[in-house]
Structures are given as structure tokens and as C-alpha cells.
Specification:
The chain is α/β, with parallel strands linked by helices. The chain contains twelve helices and ten strands. The protein has a single domain, classed as Rossmann fold. The strands form two sheets. The chain has an eight-stranded mixed beta sheet, with helices on both faces. A two-stranded antiparallel ribbon has the order 8-9.
Length: 329
């Protein structure tokens, strides 16, 4: 049985996507779930957030295959076999990382080439297109995971198409600005196109192909981030964009599809004062303590961040129908 995969994707960069995945992975592990965070962004920012410099160096032993998702893809890319056993980095007892790699960008051309080959029923094409999903599933089994969260770059290229083919659900992080709304106009139609194209390819699967993802790519809502707050309300400069998001999301992403009626998941403020402390302590903002410098208003803000991310995690899990224990902290 496969584990649910939740992708965080927007073709507009700079919306706080990696920070969101990082904090939700930690929060879901705090809620008693076993979580795998998979870094499929060729910039590998999520990996750099989770690991310190010494741990990052250990991923690239001299003269050996990289202990990253690209290293696990290497036999398939080189034509020497299928994907290898992935290297999974334990973060804590219930949280693991499937590390990213800048080399993923070099895999893009092959992913583009094999996509049409699936229509011809070529077995290797299906192995390549399903490689990310199969590695995530393998990492999930190694970590006994309940859910996988994947961080993606902002492109609409073959890498993200392949990653999203393996996603059961998609969360769209947004900033309250013009370009985030413009991004929705590209993202929604592309998700529908990829879902339709993968369904066509699944009708041509040869008998020797491996287990394949269903390619649901179900949009379960958006998260608005990085707005300034004054007296518990977003400042005027952002309000007009916040007000326009619901209609744009319904029009371009949901597009009248009755089975995808869910929209806003959360409106998260920018925790400006907490981010430097969290980066220094190498922990989520909501786990900051007085010993980390979170004193007075900073500590209160950390507690507020806990409530915000807890509620967001609960909403995501409910929409994906993943059970959790409300009592676990």
C-alpha cells in the first residue's frame, strides 16, 4: 500500500514554499505522524534548511555515489538498472528527509524525452516517469512513514510534471501580490493537462512496468503567506490581493470541477522576528524556547506560530483523510 504524497507547488517563486514544507513536516511529526520530507527542488533548499554543513558534506562522499535522490536515480539514468535504495536521513524519531541535489536539473531533458514514449507503451519510459514517486514510496517504507511532503521548484517543466504525477494532493502556497495571482492562471490549466495526459498514458502501460502512481494531483487548497499584520488585520497594501485570490483560485485551479471544491487552508503572517532565531537555532519557529532567545513577545509569537501551523496541518490532513491523534504533541 502506497503512502499519501502531498506536493507544495506554485510556479511563482519566493512564496515561502520551502519554509512551509519544513514547518509542516515538523508539525505533523509533533502530531504523532511519521513523515518523509522529499526535496525535489533542483535548488535543494529544503535539504539545506534541515541539515547543517557537516551533514551536507556527508551526502557527497568523495569517490562514491551521492547519498541524495539523484544518487538513487543514478543507475536508471546511466542505463545500469532501476532506481536504487534511497538514502534517508533521520531528523528525529518521526521525521526523515529524502535529500535533494543540484544534479536533478540534469535529469530534465530525459524526463522530457520519455514523456511521449509512454504513449508508445515503452516500459523504460514508465520506469523513468515514475522514478520520483517510487523513490518516495521506498523512502516511506524505510521510515515507516504515514505521509510524504514534497518541495518543488517554481518551474512548469518536466521535473515538476514528473514529481506531480506522483502527488495525491497539491497545496498551493501564495503571496498576496499580482504575480501570485498570475501564477494561478498558469498552474491550474497545467495541472489539469498533466492529469489528463497521465491518464492517457496509464491506458498504455505494458505488463512489465513497475507499480505506478495514479496521478491524482488533487488541489486541496491554498496557503497565503508573508503578509504584514497591523491590529490583527493585513495592511492595506496586501488586502486587495488577498481579496482577489479566492475568485482566481476557483476560476483557474478548481475550474468548476465539483470534486475539487476546497480552497483556502490558511492565511499566515510573516513571522519576521522569529525567522533569524529559528535559523540560528536550526529548529522550527514554533519550537523556539527562551534558551534560543525567544523571550517575552518573541516567545508569545512562537506560541502563536505553533497554533497557526497546528491548525494548518490539521486542515491538510483532514482534506487528505490522513488520521492523526489530536492528543499527541
Amino acid at each position: 500500500m502506497s503512502i499519501p504524497v502531498i506536493a507544495f507547488f506554485n510556479n511563482k517563486g519566493g512564496v515561502g514554499k520551502t519554509t512551509l514544507v519544513y514547518h509542516l513536516a515538523w508539525m505533523m511529526s509533533e502530531m504523532g505522524l511519521s513523515v518523509v520530507a522529499a526535496d525535489l527542488d533542483p535548488q535543494a533548499n529544503l535539504t539545506a534548511v534541515f541539515l547543517d554543513e557537516e551533514q551536507l558534506e556527508e551526502l557527497f562522499p568523495e569517490g562514491e555515489t551521492a547519498r541524495t535522490i539523484y544518487g538513487a536515480l543514478s543507475p536508471l539514468i546511466r542505463g545500469l538498472g532501476d532506481v536504487a535504495r534511497p538514502h534517508v536521513v533521520p531528523i528525529n524519531d518521526r521525521l526523515s528527509l529524502l535529500p535533494g541535489d543540484l544534479e536533478l536539473s540534469t535529469f530534465e531533458d530525459e524526463l522530457s524525452t520519455v514523456w511521449p514514449d509512454c504513449l508508445a507503451g515503452k516500459e523504460r519510459a514508465f520506469r523513468v516517469v515514475s522514478a520520483y514517486w517510487r523513490l518516495i514510496q521506498s523512502a516511506g517504507k524505510l521510515a515507516a512513514a504515514d505521509v510524504a511532503l514534497i518541495d518543488l521548484g517554481p518551474s512548469l517543466g518536466a521535473t515538476n510534471r514528473t514529481a506531480l504525477v506522483g502527488a495525491d494532493a497539491v497545496v498551493v502556497p501564495l503571496s498576496p501580490d499580482l504575480y501570485s495571482l498570475q501564477g494561478l492562471k498558469n498552474l491550474g490549466p497545467r495541472l489539469r493537462e498533466w492529469r489528463r495526459e497521465w491518464t492517457d498514458r496509464l491506458a498504455r502501460v505494458p505488463p512489465e512496468a513497475p507499480e505506478l502512481p495514479k496521478g491524482s494531483m488533487r488541489p486541496i487548497g491554498y496557503v497565503l503567506q508573508q503578509h504584514s499584520v497591523r491590529l490583527d488585520r493585513p495592511v492595506h497594501a496586501y488586502e486587495k490581493w488577498i481579496d482577489r485570490v479566492p475568485d482566481a483560485y476557483r476560476k483557474f485551479v478548481l475550474a468548476g470541477q465539483a470534486e475539487f471544491e476546497q480552497d483556502q487552508l490558511a492565511l499566515l503572517k510573516h513571522y519576521r522576528s522569529l525567522m533569524p532565531l529559528a535559523q540560528e537555532a536550526r529548529k522550527p519557529m514554533f519550537m523556539l524556547k527562551p534558551a534560543d532567545g525567544a523571550i517575552g513577545s518573541h516567545y508569545q509569537a512562537a506560541q502563536g506560530a505553533y497554533r497557526d501551523f497546528r491548525l494548518l496541518a490539521e486542515r491538510i490532513l483532514e482534506r487528505v483523510q490522513i488520521p492523526y491523534s489530536p492528543a499527541v504533541k
